[in-house]
Amino acid sequence: MMNKKGFTVITYVFLIVLLVISVVPFYLMIINSTHSSVEILTKFNLLPGRELANNYVTMQSHVNIWRGFLNSIFIAVPYTLLVGYFGALTAYGFAKYTFRFKKVLWSLVIASMMIPSQLSLIGFYQLNLRLHLLNSYIPFIIPGIANATTVFFLHQMIQSVPSSMIEAARIDGCSEFGIFNRVVLPCVIPGIATMCIFSFVSCWNNYMGPLIIMTDNERYTMPVMIAMIKGLYLSNYGAMYLAIAISVVPILIVYIFLSKYIINGLTAGSMKG
């Protein structure tokens, strides 16, 4: 029978292997961004090269990558904030309130999760055409108010919040929004942080939407601009890897920042209003 020490060693070896598997793709992406296309295609590179400056000049000469970076930030940040707050607010309404047609509306929320987003592209375009919102950031930000996946994910967490805490806050004279903001919201911070990570990554990597809605090249987001490098200048692999490396940085920052709230939120209490 395996002793405790042997089991610990195997566990650490397994975790180290998983760490290496997770880190190696990012490492190779950064290394390839410093090499020329010939070097990338002809050999396997593990050490940095000397073509970083040339790759940057090549990338900037074809697309304004920093403009695309800012465009993605302007869309992804408010979208993520709307997803987190209004998703939790809607889930709170379904979890703790009783109203007419509640089961029907909840069924609609669940059913909407089963419809692929690609099926709504034509209707999405026509709607924004009639609202004169083409070439605008609004079509990608406002939908964050109604995110069925976030509502479904947070619904169960909010149901576990003791109703006695809500009733106590209500007796103390706290408003309904005050109860949500000061009692319920702190209790579900881990779930909100988790959904914000997924929502930010999904919005940041959205390629098809901006490609269809945006008509001005200066309003394209990072995924579209990276595709332009890949499609029009296929031989510039170094420039393409550099653009991808730049686009990954915000995702890593968001994950590092919000993962702290996931851990701390597990033991966070709530403030009675």
Tell me the overall shape.
Answer: globular
- Termini separation (Å)? 55 Å
- Strand count: 0
Mean pLDDT: 85
Strand content: under 5%
Rg, Å, rounded: 23 Å
Low-pLDDT sequence parts: 267-273
Number of helices, where a helix is a run of at least 4 consecutive DSSP H or I residues: 14
Estimate the helix proportion, in percent: over 70%
Structural class designation: mainly alpha
Largest sheet: none
Order of helices and strands: HHHHHHHHHHHHHH
Any overview of this molecule?
It is a single chain. By secondary structure, the protein is mainly alpha-helical. The protein is 73% helix and 0% strand. The radius of gyration is 23 Å and the shape is globular. Residues 267-273 have low confidence and may be disordered.
Itemize the secondary structure elements and their pairings:
Blueprint: H1 4-32, H2 37-42, H3 52-62, H4 65-96, H5 102-112, H6 121-130, H7 138-141, H8 148-159, H9 163-171, H10 176-187, H11 189-204, H12 208-213, H13 222-232, H14 237-265
Helix pairs in contact: 1-14, 3-14, 4-8, 4-11, 4-13, 9-10, 11-14, 13-14
Describe, in short, the structure shown.
The protein has 273 residues and is mainly alpha-helical. The chain has helices at 4-32, 37-42, 52-62, 65-96, 102-112, 121-130, 138-141, 148-159, 163-171, 176-187, 189-204, 208-213, 222-232, 237-265. 73% of the residues lie in helices and 0% in strands.
